[in-house]
Amino acid sequence: MSAPHPHFLLVDDHALFRTGLGLMLSEHWPQGRVTQAVNLAQALESLGRETPDLVLLDVHLPDGHGLADLPALRAKAPACPVLMMSADVSGQQILQARAAGVTGFLPKVASAAEVLAAVHSALAGQPSYAAVPYAVLTQASAPQALVAPPVMQVAEAEPHLSQRQLLILGYLGRGTPNKAIARQMGMNENEVRAEVSWLTEWLGASSREQAHAEAVARGLLQP
Q1: Which residues make Cβ contacts (< 8 Å) with residue 108, sequence separation at least 6?
Q2: Nearest-CA neighbor of 221 among 211, 158, 193?
Q3: DSSP assignment of 33-89, as one string?
Q4: Which of 40, 55, 131, 214 is deepest in the core (most CB within 10 A)?
């Protein structure tokens, strides 16, 4: 049974993504608490003080790799579930995450609804891999994927954006503010903010305008 007022430890060095996810969690669990860390060192320091109900851990960190450094986190909080996050998802990553006992894996391109569903499952101690693209899960379950290479390899997932995310990117190209996007699409403003954070992180952009331009350059949107 999950905690009614959960405490989250959110570990990610991308400020925009981290802020958007933190706002989404705070809105969905208004009585909960979100502690943020920008790297592994801060995460370990936080875990040394208290154990959260769930760790949301970016795979790529400035001072380490989430999967490789998972034992250090486990040593601090052995019973705490971990939900990994990455903009790049491969079958090898999923295989390693499952082998390491990671509760779930969240592609950063996942929709807000998928994120909340994954978090709910992770808090309940249930596996949370549903948001991972089917092709990646199939790759992970293939017999040849069972032989791990000597060096951890991370392959970029094929671009896959929902229709809603593509519409949001279109609004970004027109300079539409979040409040107006929310009104036009029947969404909550914080949900829009979180989606924008996801998209800018996944596209490697530093601004809303750059996210739209990158989507056009990749052929995800028409100019």
Answers
A1: 17, 85, 86, 87, 198, 201, 202
A2: 211
A3: EEEEESSHHHHHHHHHH---SEEEEESEETTEETTTTHHHHHHH-TT--EEEEESS-
A4: 55
Q: How many structural domains compose the chain?
A: 2
pLDDT at 137: 60
Amino acid occupying residue 140 = A
In a domain, 18, yes or no: yes
For 36, phi then psi, to 5°, come to: -110, 145
Q: Tens digits of per-residue pLDDT, 98-113? A: 888 889 888 887 888 8
Burial profile 46-64: b = 16 or more Cβ within 10 angstroms, e = fewer:
bbeeeebbbbbbbbbbeeb
Q: What would the two tokens of residue 113 be?
A: 């609804």
Q: Identify whether 132 is part of a domain.
A: yes
For the purposes of burial, counting CB atoms within 10 Å of the CB of 111, is it exposed (0-12), middle (13-18) or buried (19 or more)?
middle
Pairing of strands 82-86, 54-58: parallel
CATH label of the domain that carries residue 179: 1.10.10.10
Q: What are the tokens at 34?
A: 């979100």
